[in-house]
Amino acid sequence: MLHVESAKYQSEYxxxxxxxxxxxxxxxxxxxxxxxxxxxxxxxxxxxxxxxFSIKNHTISWANGLDFAPEFIKxxxxxxxxxxx
Length: 85
Known about the structure:
This protein is α+β, with helices and mostly antiparallel strands.
């Protein structure tokens, strides 16, 4: 089962996420946040709210109670940081 091990804010709506499979990814949540009109998701459009996250239950969780499955987070990846090309 995939788990988020760590997460560090990068810039804009991007977070560097390390998973328990040893991979690290630059994840961009911008399309998700601006493409979803539900209040719990659209609240993250405020960067101060977006930056207020922690790791809970093996995933990224925001102060407003929102979290995403680790598999979804990995799917939002725009760049694998530890893969060789």
